[in-house]
Amino acid sequence: MTDHICYACFEDSVLRERVQRVGGVDECRVCEERREGISVEQLAEWLEPVMRENLGWGREVPYFGEGDSDSVSYRRLGDPLEHWVQNFLGQYFDFQNEIIDAVIESEFFYPGDGGEPFWDETMDYEEVRHSGGEFGLAWQETLQDVRHRRRFFSEKAHKFFAELFADVEHMHLPGKPRSPVVRTLRTGTRLFRARVVTSSSLLTEMVDDPLAHIGPPPPHLARAGRMNAEGISVFYASLESPTCLAEMRPAIGNDIALIELRTNRPLRVLDFERLETARSSKPLSYFQPDYQKQLKRRNFLKILHTLIAQPVTPGHESDYLITQTMAEFLSHVAAPSFDGILFKSTQRQNGTNIVLFPNAVLNEFGEPLALPVSLAAEKVNLFRTQSISYAHVKLDFYRPDDANDVIVFQDDEPHPDDTYSDDWPD
């Protein structure tokens, strides 16, 4: 039997192109056609370093006995080599055991120098967890650039954000290509905005002109926020009225005025909630030269959601220069530009906030369009805060002997006895 695998029988596009470019012509053991291809040994020589870079031995973690037992045993996390070979190739071959043997044989180590084999058919392996890597560092460098050197518009920031958001147009929820990260909110989408009522006279003004007194402030009164510099007015709102009320972070006894609005044209927005679990319609290949860099970039996009969702801390507004610059990039520099972004609420579980950039679109005369929302009804809804609730979930954790970080494990569905709530009465 021939040992030849032709390029057409590889499903990974990067690997297929490489095999076609460098392979010799022979009869393929899979499809029996004569095409450019490589041997199992050659495939293993390409596969082994890629697997070595992305895999590690499975960690041994404590496993506690059931019930009241204090006994502790250990189990190894991960999967065997047969799983990972198929995962990295993106397909299964009938002769997979040959590939596994060839990967093991291709490893170089010298026992005389104290070396030991990394690959072992009896060992389980885990994929190495990659953080944002150099993108996290670039984020900090860009922050320093816009804070201390160039605010409008930093070339470093331009380059960083252009690379960071390079393929968001092709990203969607896993298995749901019709749930893209770049969304279009249709005309008539409901939005909610609120304001704490501090006096009866202010309430009177709100009732007389809701949008003027509960809507976004005029530019000359706009204070610096998460997505806007001082003097730039953007529209902060929520998709749900309970989320909007929670975002006010009211004290017990506070009165809150809330209005409902509707979008008056389709809006192109970037959904950071979806970014946390998104996949690209242009999947990464383990065999592409910049795989590690692109993996770290996508991981940082997930981390970015947490960075932009955190509330503004009074006195630390300069920490938001980087997110303000990001908003400036998305609304004015990105092509095509965005009308706004969606991100999770830190005040209400499963709640969603929205920020709209009113100057993202220009009319035929080059002038910014008016805010793309209008009042759904000339009515102000008034709420009084009566109680505040906090929920706490018990976590199991342990600290490995060979690591400095505390690794936290949390059950997907906590036991009812492990969940505590405190309701503060009015």
Instruction: Report the span from N to C terminus.
Output: 81 Å
Unreliable spans are 410-426
SS strand fraction: 15-25%
Biggest pleated-sheet summary: 5 strands, mixed
Keywords summarizing the entry:
23 strands
Notes on the structure:
The chain is α+β, with helices and mostly antiparallel strands and 426 residues long. Among the domains are: 4-64 and 71-127, no CATH class; 170-186 and 228-279 and 312-386, no CATH class; 390-424, no CATH class. It has helices at 13-22, 40-54, 81-89, 96-106, 134-148, 155-164, 200-208, 210-214, 241-247, 272-275, 291-309, 321-333; strands at residues 4-6, 24-27, 34-39, 55-57, 60-64, 72-76, 125-127, 171-173, 176-180, 182-185, 190-197, 235-238, 255-263, 267-271, 279-280, 340-344, 352-356, 373-375, 381-384, 388-393, 396-398, 407-409, 419-424. The longest helix has 19 residues, at 291-309. The model is unreliable at 410-426 (pLDDT under 50). InterPro entries: RES_dom. This is RES family NAD+ phosphorylase. Residues 210-368 form the RES domain.
A few lines on this structure:
It comes from Paraburkholderia tagetis. It holds the Pfam family RES. The protein has twelve helices and 23 strands.
